[in-house]
Amino acid sequence: MKTPACALILLSLATTAHAGDTVPPGSVIDAAIGDWNKDGKADLALLAAPAGDEQAENPIGIYIYLRDDEHSLLKLAASAPAKIWGNIEPGGVVGQEPSISALPNGSIAIVSQNDSIGRDRWEQTLTLAYRNNSFVVAGYTYASRDTLEPDDSHSCDYNVLTGKVTKDGKTLKADARTVSIQDWQDDIGQKACGNRE
User: Fold this and answer.
1) In contact, 135 and 129? CB cutoff 8 Å
2) How many CB atoms within 10 Å of residue 72?
């Protein structure tokens, strides 16, 4: 379930619930509503740009809120600033917009991409799951293509929790890991996919 009205209401609650760790409303890029911890209550996940003139290689942060058991208010459960790359301007380049969505199993999918500039086009998806009171990267999917060399395209799906890797249709094995979203670096996924040493 993801509607603008619900997102605005939950964002309002989120900024009230934990004022010391909130995201300025004007910096929110996308939002998703789901039951991340499977307690029957609606939770919130946000993608947000840094406030002010801060610049970073990966300028977009991930912020996840859970309902407080006692008061049913949202509380910040995970804060991972400067985590993904993407366009942060509402009128910016089409094909570079990041997104966040709720999956039917209660996980969170975060997509970043470049499908507009240069010959090297790519899309990356991080799948987050709530495990042992922490949000971990359960899956990493990466697809790339060269617009000038149509045969030079690749895809890789890495189940981070089991270590199973499927690269260009072949099954490989990498290290099984439990990595929180705060500690995740894309190099972990790229190395598992054999793209970096």
Assistant:
1) yes
2) 10
pTM: 0.84
CB 17 within 8 A of CB 23: no
Residue written as token pair 């991409």: 113
Query: Which residues are registered as beta bridge partners of 136?
Result: 129, 180
Residue 197, domain member (yes or no): no
Give the separation between CA 43 and CA 35, rounded to whole angstroms. Answer: 5
Q: How many other C-beta atoms lie within 10 A of the C-beta of residue 164?
A: 16
- Report yes or no on 23 lying in a domain: no
Residue 185 has, within 13 A of its CA and on its CB side, a CA count of 5
> What pLDDT is attached to residue 58?
73
Angstrom CA distances, 90 to 9, 52, 69, stand at 21, 15, 35
pLDDT digits (tens, 9 = 90+) for 36-77: 999 999 999 999 998 665 556 678 999 999 998 788 899 999
- Asked, for residue 45, whether it belongs to a domain, the answer is yes
Residue range 89-103, pLDDT digits in tens: 777 678 889 999 999
Token digits of residue 51: 């406030």
74 DSSP β-pair partners? 67
The total number of structural domains that make up the chain: 1
Domain that holds residue 113: 4-18+28-88+96-192
Contacts (Cβ under 8 Å, ≥6 apart) of 165:
156, 157, 158, 159, 171, 172, 173, 174, 192, 193
